Amino acid sequence: MSSPSIQSALQQMQGLAAQAAQPIKGEHVATAVGQGGFGSELQSSIQRINRLQQAASTKAMAFQAGEPNIELNDVMVDMQKASVAFQMGMQVRNRLVTAYRDVMNMQV
Question: Does the reported pTM lie above 0.90?
């Protein structure tokens, strides 16, 4: 990958992370990003992904039930946000597992 491609991908990931970090309507964020250690950041990221998926599922079920003021495009956008956040979480997990394996295979 060339340097501009890497920069572009990094900017896209940061933009998606910023969107995923935004609170969902009616949601109160208990912890702010940047507080605590790696474990707490990982846990809060997983919780944000879970909240996005739950909100998307709830909105999809409400749309299917025919509730007013819920548009199909809003449902699709929320589903995509949840999907992208989940995929990003899976990539982070895969990188962590790879790094762990690399460290464990190191010769002393």
Answer: no
